[in-house]
């Protein structure tokens, strides 16, 4: 059942009120049950990929915060997220990291920051440790390699979530920050916020690409 326009459930969240699952359903034009199935993978009768993307977009627009406590219990994971930073000295990196920390605070999560070397072998050393810690999600910022992307994709295959903030798309969800040094500080910070919010959403059928200064795109739109 879809929620008709004008129905009380279709009204936007009021000032000071956090958006609910019903708000997301109303924005996406679906029933709360359908929205719940879209946002919680592994349930029966999963919606189509197109419908799931519509629900994800509504959740992002409203700033919907999922029940992270339930997620951590269901996934057997901690309330900690990992922030992997390739170059701590890069000017834009600190702004992206600040955005991740801002979002983590809003979600009531802890952040473990890991400075990774720029060679392709460092992530392979770090990832087993993060798996043992059962981190809820990973946000990777900055320079990477094919092996780096493979390690993060493998983490997702074990039930985790990983998102990159990078100039080129990786085999995981990516917040595209092309020509980062020339971009305004505020965009860097917002990239970090969006990356963590995306990491707390279920995986899509194909990796998403987000360009904050242009548009939010689905898996097949560049």
Can you put this structure into words, describing what you see?
The protein folds into two domains: 8-64, 434 Repressor (Amino-terminal Domain), CATH 1.10.260; 70-217, Rossmann fold, CATH 3.40.50.2300. The protein has helices at 21-28, 32-39, 49-62, 68-75, 91-107, 122-133, 146-157, 185-199; strands at 80-85, 110-115, 137-141, 161-166, 173-176, 209-211, 215-217. Residues 1-15 and 214-222 have low confidence and may be disordered. By secondary structure, it is an alpha/beta fold. The protein starts with 20 loop residues before the first helix and ends in a 5-residue tail after the last strand. The protein has a seven-stranded mixed β-sheet, with helices on both faces. Strand 3, helix 7 (146-157) and strand 4 form a beta-alpha-beta unit.
SSE topology:
Blueprint: H1 21-28, H2 32-39, H3 49-62, H4 68-75, E1 80-85, H5 91-107, E2 110-115, H6 122-133, E3 137-141, H7 146-157, E4 161-166, E5 173-176, H8 185-199, E6 209-211, E7 215-217
For the record, the CATH class of the largest domain is Alpha Beta
Shape, principal axes of CA atoms: globular
Query: Can you list the strand order of the major beta sheet?
Result: 2-1-3-4-5-6-7
Instruction: Give me the CATH superfamily of the largest domain.
Output: Response regulator
Radius of gyration: 17 Å
Structure keywords:
about 40% helix; disordered N terminus; about 220 residues; 7-stranded mixed sheet; Rossmann fold; 434 Repressor (Amino-terminal Domain); alpha/beta; 2 domains; disordered C terminus; single chain
């Amino acid at each position: 059942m879809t929620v008709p326009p004008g129905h009380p459930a279709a009204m936007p969240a009021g000032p000071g009120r956090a958006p609910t699952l019903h708000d997301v359903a109303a924005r996406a034009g679906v029933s709360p049950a359908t929205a719940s199935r879209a946002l919680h993978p592994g349930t029966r009768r999963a919606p189509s990929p197109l419908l799931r993307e519509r629900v994800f977009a509504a959740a992002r627009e409203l700033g919907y915060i999922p029940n992270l406590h339930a997620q951590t219990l269901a996934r057997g994971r901690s309330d900690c997220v990992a922030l992997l930073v390739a170059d701590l000295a890069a000017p834009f990196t600190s702004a992206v990291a600040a955005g991740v920390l801002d979002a983590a605070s809003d979600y009531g999560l802890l952040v473990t920051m890991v400075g990774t070397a720029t060679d392709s072998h460092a992530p392979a050393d770090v990832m087993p440790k993060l798996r043992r810690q059962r981190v809820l999600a990973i946000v990777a910022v900055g320079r990477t390699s094919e092996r780096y992307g493979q390690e993060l994709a493998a983490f997702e295959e074990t039930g985790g979530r990983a998102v990159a903030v990078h100039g080129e798309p990786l085999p995981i969800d990516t917040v595209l920050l092309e020509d980062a040094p020339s971009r305004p500080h505020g965009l860097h910070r917002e990239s970090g916020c969006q990356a963590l919010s995306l990491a707390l959403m279920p995986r899509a059928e194909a990796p998403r690409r987000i360009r904050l200064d242009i548009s939010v795109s689905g898996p097949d739109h560049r």
